Amino acid sequence: MKVHEPEYWAPPANFLAAFGRAGLLKTRNAGRAVFLLLEACFWLPDVLARRREFVRQIIICGIKSLLVTSTVALFTGMILALQAGLVLKDYGQQVQVGTLVSQSMCREMGPFMTALILAASVGAAMAAELGTMTVSEEVAALQVMSINPVRFLVMPRLAAMILACPALTIFSNVVGILGGMLVADTQLGVSPQAYYDNAMLYLHNKEVYVGLLKALVFGVILTIVACHAGLSASNGAVGVGRATRQAVVTSFLLILVSGYVITRFFY
Amino acid sequence: MLELRDIHKELGGRPVLAGVSLKVERGQTLVILGPSGAGKSVTLQHLVGLLRPDQGQVLVDGEDIHAAPPRERERLRNKFGMLFQSGALIAWMNVFDNVALPLYEKTRLGDAEIRAIVERRLQLVGLEGQGEKMPAELSGGMRKRAGLARAIVRDPAIILYDEPTSGLDPVLSRMIDQLIRDLQRELKVTSVVVTHDLQSAILVADQVAMLYEGRIVELAPPRQFLASGHPFVRRFIDAQFAAREFNHP
Lengths: 267, 249
Fold this sequence. Notes:
By secondary structure, chain A is mainly α.
C-alpha cells in the first residue's frame, strides 16, 4: 500500500476553485479506493493464512449483527405486509400479499436493509478502528515491520463481509417473509399455508440470485469505503470522527446508486 | 551504516527539514535532540522509509532506501526495528501476539520456537509473565517496553526510538535508558534515538545531534555537546539544567 503523506492546500481563491478542488479530491479518493479494492482482492487467496483475524471479523460482521438485522427484517416484512395487505384487502386480493412481500424482500429490501445496517454499524466501526490505528501509528508500525496493511487489515475484513453480507441477506429475506406471514395470518385473515404458497409462486431463482449479487456488491462497497476512510484518517480524534462519518455517508449513497444500477441491469 | 544526505522536506506548506545530513556508524547510538516540532520524528520516518524526502538521500548500508524498488525496500526495512512514541501496539492483540507478530508474518518459524523467542524478548525488557495482558491493561512504561520487545524480536541491525522516555516518570525514564544501553551492548545494534530529554540523551548517546529550524546545528559526543557554544544549544542545555536546579535548589 502506498503511504499517503499529509497534504497542505492553500485556501481556494474563490467558490469555483473550491468546487473544482473538492471534485478533484473526491475523484482522487475514488481512484485510491478502487486501488485499495484491487489490492485487497489480490491478497484474498491468503485468507487462510490470516484465519484468526478472518474469524474475528466473521463474528463482528455476521454473528454480532444477527440480532439487529433480524429485528429490522422482521419489521420490514410486517410493515410491507400490513401496508400492501390493507390496500389489497379492499379488492379482496389479500392472498397476494405473500408474493408482494417475498418479491420485495428478495429483490430489494433484504439486501438493501442488511447493507444499510452493516454500513451504519460494522462499516462505521471499521472506519473508526482503522482510523484510530492510523492516527496512533499502529499502521505505520505494521509498515516498518514490512507487514502489508492491506493484507493484514483490509483483506480479512473484505473476505468476512463477502461471506457475511449475502448470508445475512438470506437470513433477512427469510425473517422478513415470516414477519409478513405473521401479519397476514393475524390481521389480514390469510392462512400461513396460503401465504407460503403465494409467496413461493412467483419467487424464481433470478430474484434470489440478483438479491444475493446486490448483497455481495453492497458488502464490498461498504468494506472498501470504510477501510479507505479509516486508513486515510489524520489529525487525531477529530480525523477519526470525520473518517467515520464520511464512511457511513459515502456507503449509504453508493449502496443506493449501485442498487438502482444492478436492478436496471437485470430487470 | 546509516546516512542521511541533505534531506529536505516540506509538510503542511512549511519546510520541516532544510538540509539534514547525519551519519551513524555501525553499533553506535546517535541521539537527535531538539525542541517540539523541530522535525525529529519526521527525520526518523525518513530513515525507515515512511516519508519520502523532497530532496536528498537516505542510505542504509550504502543503498538508498527511497530509490530502491519495493522488494528491495522491504529487505532494507527488515534491518530496522522501531519503537514508536505510544508503543503502537495492535489494540486487539495481547502482548505476546503483538511481540510475536513479525515472527508469524515474516518468518517460517514454528510455534514453539516463536514462543521461546518472544519469552526471551519479554524477559529482556522486564515483561516476563505479562504476555497475556491486552495493551489497554498496560501502563505507559509497560506499553513502551512491549513495543521495544516487538521492535527487537527479529534481531534488527538498526533500532529507531521515537521519544522513548516521553510521558514517563524519571525512574521509568532511566530504566528505559538503561534498556537502550543494554540492548546496544547485548545485540550490538545501531541506534537512533529522538528525544527532547537531555539527560536521557547524555546517558545513551555516542553522538548527540541538535536539530533546530530544520538543520543539524551541533553534532558531538555527549561531553563536547554539553560544552557547545551554539546559542540555541546553550539555551536548550541551560533550560534543562535550570529546571533541575529549580526542583533541587
